Amino acid sequence: VSGDVSFTTKGYKLHKLDSGPSSEVTLNKTDAIHYYKQMQVIRRMESAAGNLYKEKKIRGFCHLYSGQEACAVGMHAAMTEGDQVITAYRCHGWTYLLGSTVTEVLAELTGRMSGNVHGKGGSMHMYTPVFYGGNGIVGAQQPLGAGIAFALKYRNQKNVCITLYGDGAANQGQLFEAANMAKLWDLPVLFVCENNGFGMGTAVERSSASTEYYTRGDYVPGIWVDGMDVLAVREATKWAKEYCNAGKGPLVLDMATYRYGGHSMSDPGTSYRTREEIQEVRKSRDPITGFKDRIITAGLATEEELKELDKEVRHIVDDALKVATTDEMLPVEALYTDIYHNTPKQMVRGATIDETIPQPYLNSQELLKAIGRA
Amino acid sequence: VSGDVSFTTKGYKLHKLDSGPSSEVTLNKTDAIHYYKQMQVIRRMESAAGNLYKEKKIRGFCHLYSGQEACAVGMHAAMTEGDQVITAYRCHGWTYLLGSTVTEVLAELTGRMSGNVHGKGGSMHMYTPVFYGGNGIVGAQQPLGAGIAFALKYRNQKNVCITLYGDGAANQGQLFEAANMAKLWDLPVLFVCENNGFGMGTAVERSSASTEYYTRGDYVPGIWVDGMDVLAVREATKWAKEYCNAGKGPLVLDMATYRYGGHSMSDPGTSYRTREEIQEVRKSRDPITGFKDRIITAGLATEEELKELDKEVRHIVDDALKVATTDEMLPVEALYTDIYHNTPKQMVRGATIDETIPQPYLNSQELLKAIGRA
Amino acid sequence: STLTVRDALNQALDEEIKRDERVFVLGEEVAQYDGAYKVTKGLWKKYGDKRIIDTPITEMGFAGIAVGAAMAGLRPVCEFMTFNFAMQAIDQIINSAAKTYYMSAGRVNVPIVFRGPNGAAAGVAAQHSQDYSAWYAHCPGLKVLTPYNAEDAKGLLKAAIRDDNPVVFLENEIMYGQPFPVSDEVLSEDFVLPIGKAKIEKSGDHITLVSYSKGVELSLDAANQLEAIGVQAEVINLRTLRPLDFETIRQSLKKTHHLITVETGWPFANVGAEVLAQVMESDCFDELDAPVFRVTGVDVPMPYAQPLEVAALPQARHIVNMAKKSLNIQ
Amino acid sequence: STLTVRDALNQALDEEIKRDERVFVLGEEVAQYDGAYKVTKGLWKKYGDKRIIDTPITEMGFAGIAVGAAMAGLRPVCEFMTFNFAMQAIDQIINSAAKTYYMSAGRVNVPIVFRGPNGAAAGVAAQHSQDYSAWYAHCPGLKVLTPYNAEDAKGLLKAAIRDDNPVVFLENEIMYGQPFPVSDEVLSEDFVLPIGKAKIEKSGDHITLVSYSKGVELSLDAANQLEAIGVQAEVINLRTLRPLDFETIRQSLKKTHHLITVETGWPFANVGAEVLAQVMESDCFDELDAPVFRVTGVDVPMPYAQPLEVAALPQARHIVNMAKKSLNIQ
Ligand SMILES: Cc1ncc(C[n+]2csc(CCOP(=O)(O)OP(=O)(O)O)c2C)c(N)n1
Ligand SMILES: Cc1ncc(C[n+]2csc(CCOP(=O)(O)OP(=O)(O)O)c2C)c(N)n1
Ligand SMILES: [Mg+2]
Ligand SMILES: [Mg+2]
Description:
By secondary structure, chain A is α/β, with parallel strands linked by helices.
């Protein structure tokens, strides 16, 4: 097949909207291959991260995105130049999609110099010019995202800020505060709730008096979307972007998805749900195998093409892994960098008065340059 | 008239409720006189407070309740033993209704020993055994009220906690957090929004993307009530109490009322609304004159009876004023009291190391006893 | 000419809003009401809805929005009606604003000013009277400014707005209405003070009084009283708490060998404690002819009644007493 | 027998829940998940939904609910998954819990415990690593407890729950799994430690190390190293930061004449600064044979990569170095 193929997505549910995105969507071969590859990269990258964690090469927290790939890839597919994104700590996939390499992501997880922020942030704190992290405090990114949208509107940009949060975070008061101001001021913000069924060990019914997250913005209209279908996500996001940029203010998107792994790597993720439940989702709703089946059936790709692609993806991740496990870490001088922007070097008090020193480098870039790494 | 007289209140508006309070209410003479007197006491007490402020006998903030009397008096009329109340800083009327004397309120405002908390709290911080203040931080009382309701439920008490907040505070995130838990746990809390039209100088439309406050609890059902009609307020509160205590969880009550004065005494209150607007409300919606007309017309009271009552009220307030302006203030030792409950006396660091002293008295009660004032 | 602190702040805002179109002000009642304490008076009329923005009473939300806008390239001035209410938003100030530049290895900077009155006002009791100086100064990633007079207010606020980092700007409500004589330079729109530099408000050889914000006023009062008994006190106005200009303290101490710190906040782990500690840990220690003493607020929440409120706060006499003690004067 | 800090906390909770039906635990994942760090393990199974309550991720809300419940006569133990998240709720902790007894002239007391891990864990970066000891200790109205070992954890948590005032109880995640030898007395359900009393963990004549929480471990390490070079260090475990047991410090200093403070939090206006200040201001000052030095965390947000994280935190060698400096040992 060379042209566009039509697909039907699951119906959307609408809140305070007369019409919504179309369930009839089209897809061409290039995009099909592209989405497939992006989802696979994320899936494999996260598997690699999981292994690195088990090998104790990643410290602290490590929140994987496996199972939720269609959300990020679908939204990303609808983004246009100038659109911005902010999310919580489950940020590896987004970091990759928004301009960082797999190497930069994995090396950040292992705390190496080639990491997205050279090991200073770790799993939860990665950034690109249109991506504001990677935020560790549940809910904090909700007003931050509204603020980024505020800046877009201030500059008269026809763009949106995609502001992601989980079903657990959907109860945070600052979401309601941000939504109120976003609505009062018609900010172009998409509040996107990735409902993966759980906030840590708490199922949605136990955390949320209403699990109809697309209605929780009250006066902010909302759309429920099948978050396991990259095409539904893409379509809904496109529609939502148009809505926002028509000056109608914020929208809530509620993406029904699932988290395969534990909350973070230290959580086995099986005390609050059955292994069967996870298996069932993998079998019947997996965003990648589902998509794969559909594009093969539709003739947009062949089994062989996708196998080739899988191989390519494996290479990308394997190569990244090599760097992530062998690259050096920042020298200890980096402890004293990145304190203030455009400010002369400061004295920094160390563990004792005798270890109080002037900043050897102002910021990581300067340091990396000095050691020939940038 | 000796028996009950029927009145019709303005219609209620309902949110997620199939039925609501009745618009047909009855009133007997005793209650009529009682409500009238309570409202008049509050009105006069607040006038007195306003004058004291102008005479610089009250310091800091002084938020008057004038115009909103029907809300407190109506809710109070529906309360039964064991019910609890918490509100924000606009608390003088409630303090009086819930067991404190006019003297204790006014003397607190002037910072005297006979004040509700002997001058330690001032205008915003007064308490009685069923009244948790008097809270100065906008929104903080919302989860506190839910917590008081939590305690009621914990002890299997068939009671509610009336949790009041303004239209401005209605946007605070912690309200939504508290409402979520209240609903999840079926807490017997009445979230009561006293919509007096403004949060300081900001009209409701500028602070709230939706001004339908009775719907803002989303999954928490709500009722709009004419907050200028003491009978409507009483009826709605009665109904709401029954609802809560049937184990159905929280409710939102949205009381439409008006604030005659400025936000606090230092705000002339005329830059963001016209004097005509205030006059119009006074003329057409005043909770006291409206009620007075109705009960006289219905034969529940005569003009003369009410005049007598007015005189009595004036005496009460005048007597209170005397104490409030002549009573002594706590001796300076009181600075060091009330730090910890049931804890041996502490050393308290003063302005200098040389003024560091052991607590002369553990708490104000002890001090008052020592100086023969308790 | 003279200028009140309020007008100095207003001028600084006015000039910086005019100078840089990325600068805007948001907060409760800052626009149509002219500010709860009238610091933003006239700005909304002059600059309109885009630049001067009234927010709902949702500190966590609007502080977060301000921080997000700063990350995205604007330069918000986020007014808290008082810093007591900023406690609702402090996670956004610390975790989102102060830490992001470091966490992002310098990728994302956050040029924002959080400002408003801090510490005790008059008769507003415990919940409205807290002094947050020590809390904010404790945290790396922030710059923390504490203006005392009109010159400070103008020069430091302009510096804060032009700074590329999160600045916590702690004003004092009681000082707003106070007029101070100022030079023409201060009135010029190019007047900017350096962040991180203390100012010697009065020089003297016998004892150093280190203070900030309203404490400077007390210190100058005390210095006058000391003068009467022949003691020349040097009064240092810290102006910036983070980064602290310890060098100025050091130089003064080398001259006077006696030191008192003065602030209105609570004593435990306060700014004075840090000054004492830095003196003790540094070579200054040998310069001391007497221990350093702190003059502070009393270690209790703020009571309402006036006599108690007065007793809860340090007075010039406390400084005089401690100075005498330090100098061994009866 | 030995007991981990985690089990000690668990025992304390278990015993106090059993002892007083007004006691209940609420927080994120405390019930069905057994606690994010398993401190509440088994309690939900044992006591059920009424006493052990999972909350949504809404710190301001559930902390406020807990405070309200305490005002109304219950005795909540409010777990924060870590104290970093308590910043969202800190207004409820300070303004609603800490100040109400004072504001109400003793009419309303607030018997509540806020507990959870505080300070740096391992590899969790800037937003998850802050140490709030100095902040909370700054505020009157609170009691602030900082257990180090299993004995502290058990005895102090029981004391906190029985106390009629708001208690901030700062644990350390890294210490949870650590086993400590404990006496039978500690294991008994009557074991309660006094609030406001420090403990001498090791006595010595040459120098005093004052510390709390994980800093005590570092101090004991350092004391061992010092022993090897003939220095007998006395190690004081503060246990309570507010009210501070300065008397124990004073007595030790009278003996040793040398003092080092040790903590993992940031330096500026930290607990060590307060100790230095109190020493300087008191009669202890004359007992000093050398200045007091602080060992602290480095004044930067916490980086992720391990070598940087290690460099950001104080080590035993820092204490040894400062002790040598104090004692003038090369
Ligand atoms: C304010 C705050 N409270 C608690 C935590 C600990 N925590 C981290 S993630 C998480 C669960 C969040 O669940 P959800 O919002 O559904 O996102 P998901 O992890 O499912 O993507 C919790 C409780 C935190 N980081 N911040
Ligand atoms: C968190 C917080 N922010 C701001 C304030 C200052 N403030 C006090 S009352 C008020 C307006 C509240 O309006 P509303 O909730 O409508 O109550 P009303 O005064 O009308 O009774 C504001 C902004 C405060 N006390 N607390
Ligand atoms: Mg989730
Ligand atoms: Mg109002």
